[in-house]
Write a structure and sequence with these properties.
Length: about 180
C-alpha cells in the first residue's frame, strides 16, 4: 500500500494505482521494471503494456543486463537488503533509468540505529528457515536511520519518503537527474 501511495503521489494522481495503470495514457507509455514481485501490486503493474517482472537473485541487481537509460520506473520491495553490494545495485538502477526516471522501493528499517552490514555476523533470514523454503533470503544489510544516504552516494538527485504507518512502512522514491531536466 505504501509503494502504491508513493507512486500515486509522485505522479500527482490521487486515487487507486489501478486506475493510473489502467487509464492514464502517459503513465501507460512508461517502461516499468519490477524486481521481485511487489505483492498485490504485481497484478496492477501487469495492466501496463511495458511492464517487466524479473526475479532476484537470478536477475543480478549489481550488474543489470540492460542498456543505459532504458527504463522509466524501477520498483522493488524488501529486496535490496538481500543484495551483497546494495550500493552497486543502486548505481545500476540509476544507470538503467532514463533521465527523470524514478526508483521506488522499500527496505525494512531499524529505527534508532545506523545501517550495518551483516558480514561477519551470524546469518539472518527473513521468513522461516523450514527445509525447502524458497522465499527465504539471507539478509546482507540491516538498514537504519541513514538508509537514504546510499541513494545520494549512488548519484540520485532527489529522494522522497512516503509512510502510511511509520515506522512499519516507508517507501523510498529516488529520481535521476532532476537538475538536468529543469536547467
Amino acid at each position: 500500500m505504501t509503494l502504491a501511495e508513493a507512486i500515486s503521489r509522485t505522479f500527482q494522481r490521487p486515487g487507486p494505482l489501478r486506475e493510473l495503470c489502467r487509464s492514464d495514457v502517459l503513465f501507460r507509455a512508461l517502461h516499468l521494471l519490477e524486481i521481485n514481485s511487489a505483492g498485490a501490486l504485481t497484478s496492477i503493474f501487469e495492466l501496463l503494456p511495458h511492464h517487466s517482472l524479473v526475479a532476484f537473485p537470478e536477475f543480478d541487481m549489481q550488474r543489470m543486463n540492460l542498456p543505459d537509460n532504458s527504463v522509466d520506473l524501477i520498483v522493488h520491495s524488501d529486496t535490496l537488503e538481500h543484495v551483497p553490494n546494495p550500493s552497486a545495485a543502486l548505481r545500476e538502477c540509476r544507470r538503467v533509468l532514463k533521465n527523470g526516471g524514478y526508483l521506488f522501493y522499500t527496505v525494512p528499517v531499524v529505527v534508532g540505529r545506523l545501517t550495518r552490514s551483516r558480514a561477519g555476523l551470524p546469518p539472518s533470514y527473513h521468513g522461516t528457515r523450514a527445509a525447502g523454503a524458497v522465499d527465504d533470503y539471507r539478509v546482507q544489510t540491516e538498514y537504519g536511520a541513514d538508509f537514504w544516504c546510499e541513494l545520494f552516494a549512488a548519484g540520485f538527485s532527489q529522494v522522497t519518503l512516503t509512510s502510511l504507518v511509520f515506522p512499519a512502512s516507508v517507501a523510498i522514491c529516488a529520481r535521476k537527474n532532476v537538475e538536468q531536466l529543469e536547467g
